[in-house]
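Help! Submission page says 'invalid entity' but I think these are all valid:
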Amino acid sequence: MLTLACAVCGGGPDPARGSYIVMSIIISLLPLAMLGGILAWVIISARAAEAAPQKTDDGGLPS
Amino acid sequence: MDATLDPARSPAPTPRTRRQVVPSAVLGTLFFVVAEVMLFSGMISAFTISKAGALPGMWPMPGQPRLPAEATALNTVLLLLSGVVLFVSQRLFQKKSPVAHWVTLAAWALGASFVALQGVEWTALLASGLTLTSSPLGSFFYLIVGGHALHAVGALLALGWAWLQMARGKLSPGFFFGTQTFWYFVVLMWPVIYARVYF
């Protein structure tokens, strides 16, 4: 057996177990970070787009 | 008759204009890219765990060639450069510059050079005995790097089409930005693969 890593139970030698834990954390957080990033970008873009015409409209209204 | 339903009496409805804050093509490509990043993350994760669990002196296996990290550094530079050039071409495209399509072509050529040099590297590795079944390193190498190369070829096809449409003056910004997003994924994914697999 050349590789002793066990991706299911976390068995195998210590370096493999450490890698398994680190990679599990990365893979768990990565999709949340990416989708959160996209959501934040869309919200920021929408707010910026909403704010832009508001200024123009207000400028044209009599006080 | 209800006055509100009479078009002659009721005031014309103010058309509600919907402004697209994020191009749909970019958003769609981004969700696709998220899925693709997870695909590569899974493969890199399996590679990392397998490599960490290999017995001392068994990665790569005796008799197997080591990966040409130095030669691939040139490919990496070419790919990163193509990403920078594509970014410049986007700026020029937005300014409706007549040279935008030439800059896009330069980005495409740099990307194509990357794929071509990868092909040369693969040929040399196959000749020296590293195949899909020769060792775990070979299996992971062709799976991960091959998967990336497939994505690069797909992105090059889309970018080539974008260039053609740009040269004809028919390119829609949405398609171009979507293609760019995918190319940036190909560009930015590569350093991660290079750092993990080649060293």
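Support: the input was valid. A stray whitespace character was the problem, and the output above is from the cleaned input. The interface with chain A takes residues 19, 21-22, 27, 30-31, 34, 37-38, 41-42, 44-46, 48-55, 58, 61, 135-136 of chain B (CB under 8 Å).
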